[in-house]
Amino acid sequence: MDVKITPTKLKGSVVIPPSKSLAHRAIICACLSRGKSVISNVALSDDIIATIGCMRNLGAKIDIKDGVLEIEGNSGKIYDDLTFDCKESGSTLRFILPIALALNKGNNAFVGRGKLGERPMKIYGDICKEQGIEYIDRSLANDKHLLDLSVKGELKSGVFHIDGGVSSQFITGLLFALPLLDGDSKIIIEGDLQSIGYLDLTLFMLNKFGISIDNKGYKVLQIKGGQRYMDCDYYIEGDYSQSAFYEVAKYLGNDVTMLGLNVDSLQGDKVIVDFVNRLRTADASEKLTFDGSNCPDIIPVFALACCLRKGHTDIINISRLRIKECDRLSATAEELGKLGAKIAQGEDSLSIDGVDKLSSGEVDSHNDHRMAMTLAIASTVTDGEVTILNAQSVSKSYPNFFDHFVSLGGKVKYKNI
Which residues of the chain register pLDDT less than 50? Predict the structure, then answer.
């Protein structure tokens, strides 16, 4: 699906979708408990649907009605050959793989779409090799590099050395699985940990469901074995990574009020508020530098805000954008550049000189949900129509984004539906 947007200012209130990050974690924890849990205010994006399907594979019973999930968990052993469809969700793949090795004695096959087969998985490959677990990744052997990975064996407790600079998702996956094993475990984080905020969400949710983790300064995580997940009811708060689009829209002169956010949230992407406020108060002559290492998901749309700021801005430590649904670092520079932004990419940075306005044009989401939404917000400050190719990608995290955009006064024409 492509969309053509006629520039107009947005005005009104919007309820921010529930946090995808918290929903993944709450659903998994509920599914690993032995009791019944109710997880409410869940948005059924493609990624969340993938996690639900995978946890059903592992024996959880999940009933869904109007964004409320009633879950009867299962953390018992399974003896079956299973296939887990992760769609395009890196979180689902990295969270579920160690859980499957902890619970299922049969073969675990993981399939997916898009660029998921190209996302880094070496950390798990190394762990499996060390523990004698069969690990076969055929993803790069097929023409489209679609995910085709299988693992078979039993995850064992022990000491795990994890590179903190790759993704905190590997640590989260292990934290879900290791409490279920016999014997205590330890995760040693080597180097600087990226996306600490996401690990905080994991530790928070595990604690809600009765799992104790001893966090020693984000350098060592000690995990007691033989723990039991307790059932828990949980309401998913609004997602700051999605609110970032409207936060930037406000900075660009749109009149949008955001509802459903928790001002005391632990979400790392809440930093978008501080980032944008810094843009507002900075003098045009001041060169600004922002470190994006702990908030990669908000960088494309924040870069848009920087493009309309008078002055020079650098966004650094964002090389991980290259291994998302697309190479977001390159795509951000390329697509905003098509609209007249003065933006250049480095190996792990963006360098931006502000312009007064953006121009009309045709841009491509690169089949990436965050790129599609960034370009839609950009259309509110262009001098003519903007056509966004592959705009259906918003379904990955925010399926009703364009419905909300139109409700705020956005003028959208849909093509190729």
Answer: none
